Amino acid sequence: MSTLVIFLKKTVLAALVLAAGLAAIPSSAASAAGFQDELPPSGNRSVNNERLERIWVREQALYQRHSNRLARADEFISKAQALIDKAAGKGWDTTAVQAALDAFAAVIPAAQAAHDPGQAIITSHAGFDPNGAVTDRAAAVETVRALGQVLKNTRLAMNGTGQALRSAVRAFREAHRPTQSPVVP
Q: What's the sign of the alpha-carbon dihedral 147, 152, 156, 160?
């Protein structure tokens, strides 16, 4: 009798494993769409227009950020020069920071000249309505490309001087970090 019970238990267990395995297999087959099953042009076109609109908004925000930084450049340069003069008054070597600031100040007019045409592009917003929606796709693509080129020209005109100034200031601060004195209880 015990042999029969063991046989029945193994049979039931095997049937349950088989049922679970079959339940995991999908009952209907899936097939990939063929070449003739393309999306209608209107559905695909709105997705591309949404992407173009997002790029337009992002480029305008970047242009505005560049405008703000260029507008504050003279104030920034004068404050940085005052700090450099103060550090030089303490007898610290400020030649690297001064050279980086001079290079930064020298490229600001060229960067401003490269940046200025962007305002006309944004004002005309060819291919976009005042809300930023695409009205003429071809004109909108050209507008986005033109503003992108203005942003690229502005970056190229800066020639990495902002990053060089930041690195020089960081190196100066590391070299002149105050030493910590021991705390007396």
A: positive
- Whether 35 is in a domain gets the answer no
Name the residue type at position 76: F
Report how many domains make up the chain: 1
Q: Where are the alpha helices (DSSP H) in 27-94?
A: 41-71, 73-89
Q: Quick one: tokens of 66?
A: 């560049």
Cα–Cα distance for residue pair 112/72, rounded to 1 Å = 12
Gap between the Cα atoms of 19 and 45, Å rounded: 47
Contact 168, 97 (CB under 8 A): yes
Q: What is the pLDDT along the chain (185 residues), one digit of tens a residue?
A: 678 778 777 776 676 665 666 566 655 555 555 444 444 455 555 667 999 999 999 999 999 999 999 999 999 999 999 999 999 999 999 999 999 999 999 999 999 999 999 999 999 999 999 999 999 999 999 999 999 999 999 999 999 999 999 999 999 999 888 777 666 66
Amino acid occupying residue 135 = T
Q: In sequence order, what are the residues at sequence separation of 6 or more whose Cβ sits closer than 8 angstroms to the Cβ of residue 67?
A: 115, 119
User: Can you give the residue range of the structural domain that contains 96?
Assistant: 44-175
Residue 1 maps to a domain: no
Closest CA to 113 of 62, 157, 146: 157
Does 7 map to a domain? no
Q: How far apart are CA 134 and CA 72, in angstroms?
A: 33
